[in-house]
Amino acid sequence: MKLDAKIFLALFYLFAISGLFFFPDRSHFIGLFSFYLISIGIYFFSLKSKQDYLFSTLLGVFFILGIVSVFSIPVLSNDFYRFLWDGELFVKGVNPYGYRPVDYIQQIDFFSAKYYMLLYDGMGSLSQQHYSCYPPVSIYLFGFCAVFTNDLQVNIMVMHVLMLLFQIPGIYFGKKVCEIIGINKKGVFILFLHPLYLIEVLGNLHFEGVMLPLLLTCFYFFHKKLIFISSFFMALAIHIKLIPILFFGAFISCLSFKNLFKFFILSMCLIVFFSIGLMDQNNMFNFLDSLKLYFGKFEFYSFVYVYFQKINSTFFMTFLNIFLLFYAFFRFKKGEFYWYESTPIILIIFYLLSGTVHPWYLLSILLFAPFCKMKTVLVYPSIGFVSYLFYGIGDGYILRLIYMLSYMVILGFLWFDLQAIKRRGSL
User: Fold this and answer.
1) In sequence order, what DSSP letters do the residues of 347-368 get, joined into one string?
2) Which residue of 29, 213, 367, 376 lies most exposed, with the fewest beta carbons within 10 A?
3) Torsions phi, psi of 102, nearest 5?
């Protein structure tokens, strides 16, 4: 029996992604990159050749991979250890913003159990030395994953299942947004079947996989002009990861001043409300200090680090935020601002000027790939996987050269995209 080309590609894609889920060691970059190269090659070939898969087929591939991932243990990132550690603290009535792991494990006897030592050792020395940098709603979800048992593998499976469940509203409302904008509903799988999304969300359990479905839900109700519901999901998304705060500037011209004011005020009030019980004026500075570490001192796959090592990226970030605010108001007056093109531009510039750019951070750019014609929203996240080379060869001239080449490609695509948008008159 002759296999149809589409079936063959789908099966090979399942094999390649599954290989990444169960890859034994992130330091073996050649093997790791081989699986990624196969999967990203099939992904772009399917997009370019416009393989006509049914929506149900794409959905089936996604959930098969989701079920397979439930039995995997993340190896490309150790963040899940800290997730479960913070969850355990919350379940035991301890505020994760009030104690650093290195202090707490020395003081409390019941943390001498093997399970807690696995979490402590697994999170790494950097995380051990700092307070939690995850917003409160993330902590609640970590607590849910940790509440059932003290078995590490079981809790990881619970986290996998939770992550998979969040994809259901993401796909549903993402499909609805595609239909509202006037594009094929299958476009939602440009995001959900991208190899980086599958690896970082279903494989490595990064909570961008919760934030992005919440944002898609927010976008749907935003288009329906249901301001309270939209602001509710925006506040939840910000409480998973703080990056959606940047989206407010892009929404300026999409609403009347009255509705914009309501959207912003409601979102801010809900953000404060969701913080009650965990964050107060005392431990808020612990949270902010940890954020400052990751975005101010720690550097990873950073354009600023590669080209301008002597320059503080905080200056760039401050300048960027001021510039984007003025630019948003300027476009608001002209009435030419499109959130699904303007927001990814803001994010791309933001990450180009950030000191730390882990691959999963770039998923917030990939979020706009179904709706946006910019090629950079696909290229930047796809190339970002090369940052895992750091774990194979360490820092040095070869790594920086590879980073430099990758950013030259990204900047090239960004320049062409901006020129295309300028010709269309929407920039």
Assistant:
1) HHHHHHT-SB--GGGGHHHHTT
2) 29
3) -65, -30
Residue identified by tokens 């970002």 is 384
Beta bridge partners of 300: 356
Is-contact 375 345, C-beta < 8 A? no
Angle, vertex CA 85, rays to CA 83 and CA 89, nearest 5: 120
The residues near 57 (Cβ < 8 Å, ≥ 6 apart) are 10
Residue with the bigger pLDDT between 249 and 177: it is 177
Q: Could you tell me what percentage of the chain is helix, strand and coil, using 3-state DSSP and rounding each to the nearest 5?
A: 75, 0, 25
- Give the per-residue SS3 of 368-405: CCCCCCCCHHHHHHHHHHHHHHHHHHCCCHHHHHHHHH
Vertex 53 angle, CA 51 and 54, to 5°: 155
Would you say residue 259 has pLDDT above 60?
Answer: yes
Strand, helix or coil for residue 426: coil
The stretch 170-195 carries a mean pLDDT of 94
pLDDT in tens, 147-175: 998 899 999 999 999 999 999 999 999 99
Contact 304, 353 (CB under 8 A): yes
Closest CA to 222 of 197, 186, 248, 246: 248
Section 41-45 average pLDDT:
94
SS3 97: coil
Q: pTM (2 decimals)?
A: 0.91
* pLDDT score, position 376: 94
The alpha carbon of residue 161 and the mean position of all alpha carbons in its chain are separated, in whole angstroms, by 18
Residue type, 394: G
Region of 23 (left: φ > 0; alpha: ψ -120 to 50; beta: rest) is beta
* Res. 336 pLDDT band, cuts 50 70 90: very low
Tokens of 312: 């503080």
